[in-house]
Write a structure and sequence with these properties.
Elements: H1 3-13, E1 26-31, E2 36-40, H2 53-65, E3 71-77, H3 87-95, E4 104-109, E5 112-117, H4 118-121
Parallel strand pairs: 3-4
Antiparallel strand pairs: 1-2, 1-3, 4-5
């Protein structure tokens, strides 16, 4: 995972609205078409209305490129904390993944960048087809 995507994810995290959890999460992704998109988490007092950084970035990519958009690679960062995408985000990543779940997803673990495929993160993704 090139550092540029991790850097963009860190920049996005700085813009997060996280007054409740104080977990500022940022995401950056590259689409199959070469587009670059960022997203941050936006919390709401009604917690169910909160949006994760990964979904914010993916939805921006869909708005720009259309429903056929596919994520080539994605990085997610939460300064001061380390974790992979949540289950809901894993499902959305799977929906817009490259064929076979080949999209690369990078997150931090023990201070190091770790990359897994979407299929490795969610081996039995829900699908209608």
């Amino acid at each position: 995972m090139p550092a540029d995507l991790l850097t963009l994810a860190r920049q996005a995290a700085a813009k997060a609205h996280a007054p409740y959890s104080r977990f500022q999460v940022g995401c950056a992704l590259e689409t199959e078409a070469g587009g670059m998109f960022q997203g941050c988490n936006v919390e709401n007092a009604s917690y169910g209305l909160t949006i994760c950084a990964e979904r914010a970035a993916i939805f921006q990519a869909v708005a720009a490129e259309g429903g056929g958009m596919r994520v080539r690679r994605l990085a997610v960062v939460c300064p001061g904390h380390e974790f992979p995408p949540c289950g809901a985000c894993r499902q959305v990543i799977a929906e817009f993944s490259l064929p076979g779940g080949a999209t690369e997803v990078t997150f931090l673990q023990n201070g190091r960048a770790v990359t897994r495929t979407a299929a490795e993160l969610l081996p039995e993704a829900f699908g209608l087809g």
